[in-house]
Design brief:
Elements (H helix, E strand, L loop, with lengths): L1 E9 L3 E5 L17 E4 L2 E5 L4 E10 L12 E9 L5 E4 L16 E10 L8 E3 L5 E8 L6 E5 L3 H8 L10 H4 L3 H13 L5
Length: about 200
Amino acid sequence: MITATAPVFTEYHGFQIKDPEGPVADDLDASHNGLVSAYLGDIEVATGIHTGDVEVTVELHAEPPGPAEGWEEIAELSWRSPSGEALVTPLMHDPADLPSLAWQGPGSYRLRVHARGRDTAVDHATGENVVEFYLLQSWPAAPQEALLVKAMTDGYGAGRRAGPPRDTLVIDHEDSLDTPSGRERDILRRAGRGDHS
């Protein structure tokens, strides 16, 4: 097992896992498990805080590990890496100082996301005062259905699961640009494509 821990800057309630050569996952909406989703090929991990640092630990395994103890929410999804370079990345900044989750090169993987502390400062900006923690376990695996492993004490995740599908992740740009959240998401998506108009 390879393990590493680093702060990751989160914006607009999340951080991503991206591959520079293309999509890593099929679309999966936020109502499925309240913790990890996929949109436009990127994996998105939902944070309770709006803006600030969270602590992320990456564990790279050759075989499927068991879920770790002491976490409030745990969810899994299958993903793929076209390049073998899948990185934990803030929405609008350079990748975090963590190893590639596709540590065995291009191919199919399974990702298990663990979260703790998402109810501590919901919707707030925390700066460098870390109140949320994440563990990302990755291992090579054939594609399987997404799975909610544990959801017991996290009110933020329960709220996301109770919402209508895609309520916080997908913006219909023709209808939603008249709302602040629609404009913010549109700016983020265009910036991610290098369109700063």
